[in-house]
């Protein structure tokens, strides 16, 4: 079953910086934007780009993520010749280890990739929010006759030291890679989106079997080795919206961006839809005294109070005389009467009892864990 290019999505990270929101689920399965999960964006990018064979590499607490993806039908990836596959670490006669890094995860699934004998392999992170046509990146890769192409985005110079930075010539050829440099030479940050010639990448993996060198990570090992070998590597410049939602602050920011900058990642764009495993929920109910402004409210919500500049996922209930402001409310949260919630992220299934207050005077995000019960005598502050 020859395929020109297949995609491998790295979706196994623990996501510890998201704290309470990844205690029981993998980071790519975290709720986002009211009705989605984070991984929906990269899966939709694959589907919209015409990529019909996708491996999803899971590891940490994969149950909900596996259930969400299912057979891939929501992304048109339930194919006889191809489709979506959930791939987990397994024990063989050599070793039975967890994935040791991004490259090692691909290495451990060489047999899966060889099944499709692709010319190119697209390696993606499962925890970024963006829209991208990977077919355009592949055309660029072919035009440059590259061995590897890395998608980059310009970041503010004062933030460049937080990223892996690609230093490239005017034509895009990469001559140097710096991992989180103290004094960056450019602001071209790697997006964690790679296209490799499979024959080239496979050769590096075969070398690793008989070498003492570490080949476990793309940024730390594979890319520097390819540069050392003077392999043709190019930076593909991406101009759209992109955000790594690896922290509570960045996850909150990305949700707020949907309200503040709705055109940046247009969820209503019929030409590039973001698909998801849709919940079978009833329509919203908005009470006669409810006051709603600048909000995204999913199906199944019942709003009797006030909601301002907030994202509410499916099944959220807001009772009378309660106020939700500048907040992200995850699925099936129950908010009682006379509650005040400001600049918060409330985990799935939490119960906020009558008269509880969740706010503070500092510029911090207030966090409530999934299924946590906030009592009326509590005044919850901080937490990120």
UniProtKB/TrEMBL annotation:
Residues noted as binding alpha-D-glucose 1-phosphate in the record, renumbered to the chain: 99, 164, 179-180, 190
Record organism: Romboutsia faecis
Gene3D superfamilies in alphabetical order: Hexapeptide repeat proteins, Spore Coat Polysaccharide Biosynthesis Protein SpsA, Chain A
Domain Glucose-1-phosphate adenylyltransferase/Bifunctional protein GlmU-like C-terminal hexapeptide: from-to ranges: 289-362
Hydrolase keyword on record: no
Enzyme class: transferase
Encoding gene (name): glgC
Keywords annotated in UniProt: ATP-binding, Carbohydrate metabolism, Glycogen biosynthesis, Glycogen metabolism, Nucleotide-binding, Nucleotidyltransferase, Transferase
Subunit organization: Homotetramer.
GO function term, MF aspect, one: glucose-1-phosphate adenylyltransferase activity
Protein's job: Involved in the biosynthesis of ADP-glucose, a building block required for the elongation reactions to produce glycogen. Catalyzes the reaction between ATP and alpha-D-glucose 1-phosphate (G1P) to produce pyrophosphate and ADP-Glc.
Enzyme Commission code: 2.7.7.27
Chain positions of site Could play a key role in the communication between the regulatory and the substrate sites: 59, 98
Catalytic activity: alpha-D-glucose 1-phosphate + ATP + H(+) = ADP-alpha-D-glucose + diphosphate
Alphabetical list of PROSITE patterns matching this protein: ADP_GLC_PYROPHOSPH_2, ADP_GLC_PYROPHOSPH_3
Domain of life: Bacteria
Record domain Nucleotidyl transferase: where: 7-259
CDD domains listed in its UniProt record: ADP_Glucose_PP (cd02508), LbH_G1P_AT_C (cd04651)
Pathway(s) of this molecule: Glycan biosynthesis; glycogen biosynthesis
Protein name as it appears in the record: Glucose-1-phosphate adenylyltransferase
Database matches in Pfam families: Hexapep_GlmU (PF24894), NTP_transferase (PF00483)
Similarity comment: Belongs to the bacterial/plant glucose-1-phosphate adenylyltransferase family.
């Amino acid at each position: 079953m020859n395929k020109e290019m297949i995609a491998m999505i790295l979706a196994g990270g623990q996501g510890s910086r998201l704290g309470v929101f990844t205690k029981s689920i993998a980071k790519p399965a975290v709720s986002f934007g009211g009705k989605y999960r984070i991984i929906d964006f990269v899966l939709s990018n694959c589907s919209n780009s015409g990529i019909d064979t996708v491996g999803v590499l899971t590891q940490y607490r994969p149950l909900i993520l596996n259930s969400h993806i299912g057979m891939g039908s929501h992304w048109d990836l339930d194919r006889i010749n191809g489709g979506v596959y959930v791939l987990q670490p397994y024990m063989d006669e050599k070793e039975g280890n967890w994935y040791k890094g991004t490259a090692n995860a691909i290495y451990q699934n060489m047999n899966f990739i060889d099944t499709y004998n692709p010319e190119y392999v697209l390696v993606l992170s499962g925890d970024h929010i963006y829209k991208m046509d990977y077919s355009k990146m592949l055309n660029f890769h072919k035009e440059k006759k590259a061995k590897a192409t890395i998608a980059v985005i310009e970041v503010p110079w004062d933030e460049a030291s937080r990223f892996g930075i690609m230093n490239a010539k005017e034509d895009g050829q990469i001559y140097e890679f710096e991992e989180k440099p103290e004094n960056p030479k450019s602001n071209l940050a790697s997006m964690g989106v790679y296209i490799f010639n499979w024959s080239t990448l496979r050769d590096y993996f075969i070398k690793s079997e008989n070498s003492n060198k570490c080949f476990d990570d793309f940024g730390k090992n594979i890319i520097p080795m390819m540069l050392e070998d003077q392999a043709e590597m190019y930076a593909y410049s991406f101009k759209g919206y992109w955000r790594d939602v690896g922290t509570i602050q960045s996850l909150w920011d990305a949700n707020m961006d949907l309200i503040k900058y709705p055109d940046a990642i247009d969820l209503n764009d019929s030409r590039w839809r973001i698909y998801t495993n849709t919940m079978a929920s009833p329509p919203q109910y908005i009470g006669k005294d409810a006051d709603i402004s600048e909000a995204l409210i999913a199906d199944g919500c019942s709003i009797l109070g006030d909601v301002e500049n907030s994202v509410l996922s499916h099944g959220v209930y807001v009772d009378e005389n309660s106020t939700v402001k500048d907040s992200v409310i995850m699925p099936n949260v129950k908010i009682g009467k006379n509650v005040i919630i400001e600049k918060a992220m409330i985990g799935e299934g939490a119960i906020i009892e009558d008269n509880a207050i969740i706010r503070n005077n500092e510029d911090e995000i207030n966090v409530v864990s999934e299924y946590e019960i906030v009592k009326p005598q509590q005044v919850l502050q901080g937490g990120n």
